[in-house]
Amino acid sequence: MKRSKRFAIVAAVAAVAAAVALTGCSSDGNTDAPESDAAATTTLNAAADSAAALTGAAVVLDIEGSLQGVNASKVEADVATKPKVVGEGTATLTMGDKSVSAPFVYVDDHMYANVDDKGYLDYGDGRSIYDVSKILDADKGVPFVLRSIEGAKEDGTENIDGVETTKITGTVPAKDLSGLTGASPEAKGLDSTIPVTVWITKDGENNVARVLAQPAEGASMTITLSDWGKTVTAEKPADVKSPSVKPTTAPKSGEPTRQPVG
């Protein structure tokens, strides 16, 4: 056999061997994510379907620590998803050194909130307080997060507000939790994974009773759902004040730094 032909055969064999080696490495890389228990996966998928089908629920959001995308430390609301997303409740905000309770209404894609008893203002989509429309959103909210959980394991049963539930632990990619945390797509750390625990009712309805995640070091987000399927109605407040603006001249000591428009 001529030298050039032998060289071509050797090169071809080497190429095949390299391809096999690369394929093996790629396969190993795909197994980095921990496997989920079959029972846990079945329960999570059923719960995701139930959450996506919800027409309304009572929601309590609790934030411990500081999350960049969330300005509220607590939100208590009744939220409906169909025919349109509406909500009504109270957000607890930290303003300076005091905690402020702000009643709000979410209707027609706008959040109207009465912060510090100054009258209702239009806060747009509400992200500056908390975007309640995302909680039950099938593509960004609780249903989506349930389908994104990796390494899901059943961890016994617990009673949540008088309801027996199955507890499931796992992790979720940070980017898949950004719809609930309000994190910007450009935020740092979205390539990491986040510990998450969920509690699913054992009554056959597979409703989500609670979701607990740790989106940042020293911070946690807990979403508790109840009154699944409740009817919720909300109307725009009758007297919505105009937003405030900066004064045209520098305020003197003790004068407000914002002035009402109109």
Automatic annotation (TrEMBL):
Signal sequence, start to end: 1-23
Primary residence: other
Keywords: Cell membrane, Lipoprotein, Membrane, Palmitate, Signal
Organism for this UniProt entry: Gordonia hydrophobica
Name of protein: LppX_LprAFG lipoprotein
Database matches in Pfam families: LppX_LprAFG
Lineage: Bacteria, Bacillati, Actinomycetota, Actinomycetes, Mycobacteriales
Key word Endoplasmic reticulum present: no
Superkingdom of origin: Bacteria
Subcellular location: Cell envelope
Protein family (similarity comment): Belongs to the LppX/LprAFG lipoprotein family.
Residue ranges, annotated region (Disordered): 234-262
